[in-house]
Amino acid sequence: MTTLYKNKYQIIKFCDDNKIMCFEWLQSTKKITDAHFLKEANLIAKTIKKVSPKKIIVKSENLMYPLSPNIQKKFDDIILPAYIDVNLEKLAFIMPQGLFEKLSIEQTIDISKQKHTFDTKFFSDEIFALEWLS
Questions:
Q1: Is 35 left (phi over 0), alpha (psi -120 to 50) or beta?
Q2: DSSP states of the chain as a string?
Q3: Are the beta carbons of 23 and 15 closer than 8 angstroms?
Q4: Could you give phi then psi for residue 91, rounded to 5 degrees?
Q5: Is the Cβ–Cβ distance between 80 and 118 less than 8 Å?
Q6: How far apart are CA 130 and CA 47, in angstroms?
Q7: Residue 61 main-chain phi, psi, to 5 deg
Q8: Cα(59)–Cα(38) distance, integer angstroms
Q9: pLDDT tens for each residue of 64-107
């Protein structure tokens, strides 16, 4: 995979051969602000539209930022149109260990499931997620 973007909060990679994009949230998200988290979401959406992945893996096991219901909705409003624009087929999540962070991610996905047609699945291991995406 080719690294498209990297900062202290996330790494975005893309494999042109199989059209899989990977977003990896980093532990430094423990200190991210709401405004900066939404800025990162906008960056993700722009990157999705730029490279048009068919499948995405979100490595959220190190995401230390608990999404409030308000931020969940704003994140969904930013990201979901990009998924729809590129006709995303599959979205795989590697889930964090912390219960609160895991619940906030699952709640965000449950809200957005009502608005999309691509397959979404949660995993505890990246290998299984990649197998499912293939």
A1: alpha
A2: -EEEEE-SSEEEEEETTTTEEEEEE-GGGGG--HHHHHHHHHHHHHHHHHH--SEEEEE-TT---PPPHHHHHHHHHHHHHHHHHTT--EEEEEPPSSHHHHHHHHHHHHHHHTT--SEEEEESSHHHHHHHH-
A3: no
A4: -135, 115
A5: no
A6: 20
A7: -65, -20
A8: 17
A9: 888 888 998 899 899 999 999 999 999 998 986 654 444 555 55
CATH number, domain with residue 88 = 3.30.750
pTM attached to this predicted model: 0.83
Number of domains in the chain: 1
Q: Read off the tokens for 3.
A: 């690294």
What is the domain range of residue 49?
A: 2-133
Residue-wise pLDDT for 12-26, tens only, equals: 999 999 999 999 999
In sequence order, what are the residues at sequence separation of 6 or more whose Cβ sits closer than 8 angstroms to the Cβ of residue 91? 55, 56, 58, 83, 118, 119, 120, 121
Cα–Cα distance, 108 to 76 (Å, whole number): 7
**C-alpha distances in Å from residue 85, one per residue of 3, 10, 37, 54, 78:** 22, 23, 22, 11, 12
